[in-house]
Specification:
By secondary structure, the chain is α/β, with parallel strands linked by helices. Helix content is 30%, strand content 26%. α3 runs antiparallel to α4.
Length: 235
């Protein structure tokens, strides 16, 4: 399934966000420094912000088209959005968090059952626990499970490992790779970590001050000869 971001524009405080791209990879990374416009781009795709120009299309579905005034509400987009902090409901159990937004539907994709999702993420044993008893890694796996169980046609991940220490990030990367390989859901993955891009993604957009500075395969953009340039410019 392709994701078309056609001539998107939104003025920001220091520069305009201007993106024009067609995404077709399993996981596309949006890489860049803090303040480059990465989260704003996800919010436009999710319907949380309206661009002043451009189109967002997922497959055959037009979600935003500014010129004719098309704008599908966020809850009707079937787009899963996982912010950095996971945004779990602290007053609900893990099970009730996971089932929030879950809908039984005849067209539900194969494999997106409660049993299979919790098995892939290894969180079945957490089901009756409260959110405040979970570790940071457990919270992120529960938040990812909740996003998957809503059966999205696109999953947006906004630096899901940014708040975790290096050993915990290393333990969570295989779960993200498993989700990539197990479920036929395209993902857009915001990060400023070249290691995460290399481990998970098959396409990467380098975003700088609201514009695509470079695009290509991670192996090309983050090869030993190229990575130091981007690491210095995108700390």
């Amino acid at each position: 399934m392709t994701v078309e971001l056609s001539a998107l524009r939104l003025p920001l405080a220091r520069f305009p966000l201007e993106v024009d791209a067609v995404l077709s990879g399993r996981i596309t990374a949006v890489f860049g420094a803090s303040g480059a416009g990465k989260t704003t781009l996800l919010e436009i795709i999710a319907g949380l912000r309206r661009p002043t120009a451009g189109t967002v299309r997922i497959g055959d579905a037009v979600l935003t088209d500014v010129a004719p005034g098309v704008f599908v509400r966020p809850e009707q987009r079937a787009v899963g959005y996982l912010p950095q902090e996971g945004a779990l409901f602290p007053h609900l159990s893990v099970r009730r968090n996971l089932l929030y937004g879950y809908r039984e539907r005849g067209s539900r994709p194969d494999g997106l059952s409660f049993t299979h999702v919790v098995e892939v993420l290894e969180i079945a044993g957490l089901a009756e626990r409260r959110i405040h008893t979970l570790s940071g890694g457990e919270k992120q796996r529960v938040a990812l499970g909740r996003a998957l169980l809503a059966a999205p046609r696109l999953l947006l991940l906004d630096e899901p490992l940014a708040g975790l220490d290096a050993p915990l990030r290393d333990r969570l990367l295989p779960y993200l790779a498993r989700v990539r390989d197990e479920f036929a859901i395209p993902m857009i993955y915001v990060t400023h970590s070249p290691d995460e891009v290399m481990a998970l993604c098959d396409d990467v957009l380098i975003l700088s001050q609201g514009k695509i500075e470079a695009r290509g395969a991670p192996s090309g953009l983050f090869a030993p000869s190229a990575a130091p340039r981007f690491e210095r410019r995108h700390p």
